[in-house]
Amino acid sequence: xxxxxxxxxxxxxxxxxxxxxxxxxxxxxxxxxxxxxxxxxxxxxxxxxxxxxxxxxxxxxxxxxxxxxxxxx
Length: 73
Hints:
- With about 70 residues, the chain is mainly beta.
- The chain has no helices and 6 strands.
- Strands 1, 2, 5 and 6 form a 4-stranded mixed β-sheet that branches. It has a two-stranded antiparallel sheet with strand order 3-4.
- Strand 3 (about 30-35) and strand 4 form a beta hairpin.
- The model has no long low-confidence stretch (mean pLDDT about 85).
């Protein structure tokens, strides 16, 4: 799984309108390419998301509320 923090309300202030979404890395349209470091090790990847939107059922918490804690409400 991959975690995405995405803007789901383009009209909201910059610190709001963000949603926390889980994405299955085996979903269609996802390409992962390893980044080779100068040491030859591959510790990081580039991830490309193309095509369809991610399912709403994968939003964690409430839409446009990012990953804020309940204690902050």
